[in-house]
Amino acid sequence: MEPKLDDTEYDVIIYGTGMTETYLSAALACAGKKVLHFEENQYYGGVFGTFSFTQFQSFLEKGFTLPFASSEEEISSPEIPKEFKIVPLLPQPSLINNGNFSIWNPPKPQPETLPASEIQIPEENAEKEDSQSEPTSKPESPKEQTEEEILRHHDRRFNIDTIPKVLWSAGSDVDVLVKSGTFRYLEFLCGKNTFIVDGNRLQLVPCSKKDIFRSKDISLIEKRQLMQFISTISQEFQNSSQSDATPGENKEKSESSESENKEAISFSSAEEEMSFVDFMNSKKLPGKLQQFLLYVISLIESYQGEASETRVSVKEGIARVKAYMTSIGRYGDTPFLIPLYGASELPQAYSRMSAVNGGIFVLNRRLNSIVVENSTFTGVLCSVGQFLKSKHFVVPAKFLPGSTSEEGLSRCVCITDKPLTDGEDLINLIIPPTPARKHTIFAYQFTSAVHSCPAGRYVVHLVAKASGNARTDLQEAVESLFITSDNYENQKDSGKPKATVVGYFNVLNFRGPQELPAGVITLNEVFVPEIGFSSNLKAAQEVFKSICGEEEPFLPERKDPNIMGEEQDY
After folding, report:
1. pLDDT digit string, tens, across residues 351-368
2. Residue 337: CA count within 13 A, CB half-sphere
3. Domain tally, the chain
4. What is each CA distance from 141 to 110, 144, 446, 546, in whole angstroms?
5. Quick one: 323 and 374 in the same domain?
6. Does residue 278 lie in a domain region?
7. Which member of 60, 165, 368, 433 lies 3.0 to 4.6 Å from 343 by CB, making a disulfide possible if both were Cys?
8. Distance between CA 204 and CA 227 in Å, rounded?
């Protein structure tokens, strides 16, 4: 029997260590709340978990969840009054479906050999051969390892994400990392380059003004049009940031940049109702630049053509451009930060922040049921039969009876023998949508530089909003980028990377039931191919306010304990 907790009463009990849950756990602990945090698995991160090679293989072949240490027998507690209602939670919900894992041993190139009749032996060697009475035995060559044996040998050097993440350098999630001091538990590298698939080639995307003027893929007229449009957008979001500032700050800015404000644009009511595409049409931007702005700069997930029902508004389009432009140059030439050792490092970091401030974490322990008195949450019953009381219970929707699920993301993970482009390692790749394929495909190539794999191997993640089965959504893109076991005969001389491991799966979205006991807070899990964790941060902030009120700060600024009394600048 596993040990029970000494303390049985808490302010908040949280179930699961996904990103929203750990943001909330750290914020509540920093606010002085007594937090108890359970995780059903042996690892942090939930759906943002990171796995070794063999764990990832098992993950696709056997399902997402790991076995619990406790039995599946019904558990009760004599501490619970008989008049209380016990509502069971769902055991071991799977977060993925349609898993498909394959591993391939590419044929080794054979050395060219001449027919025996064409082999000429020098006379002195011929005499030597004739004089040999007994054939000499050759030493046995070592057995050649299979690809699976090689990858298993380096098992722990792989850190494969369920949902890969790069962060905006100037994103709200990075700001919170810095302000709260949680960044001290993490390491990042800046991404190197972004490419877009243009027909059968990978085209380097210019990220900065300098890159735009150097680019040979954009004409001089297009460069001027693009820079003029970005300048117009920049003025708009500069005005927005001024309107969000305090009155004193606005007065200072207006005095120092009055001439700039005279040039700044303001949208008419007609323009505010436009889609982003219609707005770009009104500025007479050509289709090539529109595609660049829609899918490379704005990173819009869905097709924005004329027949599209999912066109984004001009305001959302401008907000996306702002996120991109304000992140360029903050830490490097591209706007993206990549966490070392995988996406699960972030929930682990916030879990550590919670624990440092008094939060209690229990891994590999399941919550069997919630306990309700007069339609009000009273506590939980865990898998060791202990009744734990609390005022609030925060739980992901996947654990609640009556929740609904659907395919959220289509995912593919490829392990390759060389990079997609020579000399490039940490890259983002964008495959724009088409009228037939409605969703943008985002690809991230990670390397040993961020500890995703051993040297000599590359991990490429493909992510798209799901239309259905992940293999159906992504196989065409995989076959166009790599040599695989399916297209080897046609592509073996193409020079493309060989994808020796290909794993497809769908990540599920979950939405909770509408009617819940008072004190139970559901976290709906709806995944889109977004940059960073801003949606998780926003969800955590809303729950935090519902528990602590509007006045309590969410993850307030924390000074470095090693730098006392000095000005700190991050």
Report:
1. 999 999 999 999 999 999
2. 23
3. 2
4. 16, 9, 34, 69
5. no
6. yes
7. 165
8. 18
